[in-house]
Amino acid sequence: MDQTVNKIGFWAGIIAFGSSVAFVLVQTLQLLRLLSYPYDEILIYGFSLAIVIPFLFEMLALYHATPIAKKIWSHAALIFTVIYVVFVTANYVVQLATVIPMTLEGAEDEIKILSQTPHSMFWNYDAIGYICMGLATLFAVPVFGKTGIQKWVRISFLAHALVTPLIAFVYFYPTFSEKLLLLGLPWGITAPLAMLLLAIMFKKGISPNTEFTK
After folding, report:
1. How far apart, in whole angstroms, are the C-alpha atoms of residue 81 and residue 86?
2. Backbone phi, psi, residue 135, to 5°
3. Which of 70, 122, 150, 197 could hold 116 in an S-S bridge, CB 3.0 to 4.6 Å?
4. How far is C-alpha 179 from the chain's CA centre?
């Protein structure tokens, strides 16, 4: 595997992993009422945005590392990753650059349509984004072999994909509550784990679907 691809995949994966862990920690602090507005939302949206480009580059590296025979799967995964990137970036930039500053100025009534509240437009943007992230990991599953580190990457990607229906349920259930939000808790494990294990695979220089036992 090309060493440039390895390095990009590894470091992008580590940054995505770190950002996702930071997001989970901040979200937990918010639920425990240990963070209040606007710092909770600034940190939540900020760390969420920090996942986006690193995860995109990690999946781009996966596409370039995949043998021709399996490239259709990593290509599909990359397409869904791009959809995730577009929708969540649009959301987080609007929340950080427009909604929070305008709210702090007391002009929240002017930008209500832009706020990410349950079942709002940007709530749905976020939902589409994370559903597409789950689909990206699902389509990437056939890329990996069934031994060594690849087996664990494969399992982590499949686990993350299986969490996606829960994420969709949390977003689209008619009545939102914090208890409902707890159903999405497995995401806080499967997403960072998948990003980290893929990064480790790149660190080891192992090509997808190549039978190694390291």
Report:
1. 9
2. -65, -35
3. 122
4. 22
Which segments of the chain have a pLDDT < 50?
Answer: 211-214
Amino acid making up residue 144: F
- Interval 24-59: pLDDT, tens: 999 999 999 999 999 999 999 999 999 999 999 999
pTM, whole model, 2 decimals? Answer: 0.93
Residue 210 has a pLDDT of 59
3-state secondary structure the chain: CCHHHHHHHHHHHHHHHHHHHHHHHHHHHHHCCCCCCCHHHHHHHHHHHHHHHHHHHHHHHHHHHCCHHHHHHHHHHHHHHHHHHHHHHHHHHHHHHHHHHHHHCCCHHHHHHHCCCCCCHHHHHHHHHHHHHHHHHHHHHHHCCCCHHHHHHHHHHHHHHHHHHHHHHHHHCCCCCHHHHHHHCCHHHHHHHHHHHHHHHHHHCCCCCCCCCC
Q: Give the Cα separation of 214 and 212 in Å (integer).
A: 6
Spatial separation of the C-alpha atoms in residues 196 and 101, rounded to whole Å: 34
pLDDT for 101 equals 96
- How does pLDDT run across 175-189, given as a tens digit for each residue? 998 889 889 999 999
